[in-house]
Amino acid sequence: MTKFNVLPEEYRVKDSTEKLNPLKLLFPVVMVSFLLISLLTLGVGSLKYVKLNHRLEGLILERDVLRAQGEKLIMELGRLKEKESVVVATTNLLKGDIPLLELFRQIELSLPGGVWLSSLSAEQEKAQLNGFSYNENDVVLFATGLMQSPIVGQVGFPNTRRVTRDGHSLVEFRLSCTLVMP
Q1: Is 6 within the bounds of a domain?
Q2: How far is it, in rounded angstroms, from Cα 142 to Cα 110?
Q3: Which is one Pfam family of this protein (predicted)?
Q4: 59 domain residue, yes or no
């Protein structure tokens, strides 16, 4: 025997023996899972966004610091280039055709106390020294001291003459030297 319930759906008595349909349960579970995963993704993304924003601010600050340091380094480089050009010019002068500093050094080392120079002229391979002394022996000592220098090749015999200055008898001398270029 077959029974049919012809009552409309809303008036029908529900049978408690009906099974729960897994397809009907699957849709809410999927929707809740989707919402939870979406909220979790949104939260993690927000945290990463904040973290990356802080990192970006730090990088911008670091970039600004590096730019300022770069500008200072460029200014320092310009200053050092100017200083280098002065040093190069000085070095070229010192290594120039006439090694004047070495000649001045040797004059200073070999000049006796009673001898002083009134003039010095130097050219490519020749130097002329003029001065005064109290006696001829000091002039000879001075000429001998000049010969000790590696840049002085030969010292000519000194030309001397007696002169009177301010009531003192002095020896006026003139020395010629040949210079050896290093």
Answers
A1: no
A2: 6
A3: PilN
A4: yes
What is the CATH classification number for the domain harbouring 164? 3.30.1360.100
Q: Which of 158, 119, 155 is nearest to 137 (CA)?
A: 158
Contact assessment for residue 125 and residue 182, using Cβ atoms and an 8 Å cutoff: no
112 within 8 A of 139, measured Cβ to Cβ: no
Number of domains in the chain: 1
Ramachandran bin of 166, using left for φ above 0, alpha for ψ from -120 to 50, beta for the remaining angles: left
User: Residue 157, CB half-sphere, CA atoms under 13 Å: how many?
Assistant: 1
At 148, is the secondary structure helix, strand, or coil?
coil
Token pair in block for residue 143? 């000429």
Q: Which domain holds residue 115?
A: 24-181
In a domain, 9, yes or no: no
Return the SS3 of 166: coil
- Residues 147-163: pLDDT tens digits? 888 888 888 888 888 88
Whether pTM exceeds 0.70: no
Sort residue 167 into left (φ over 0), alpha (ψ -120 to 50) or beta. Answer: left
In a domain, 2, yes or no: no
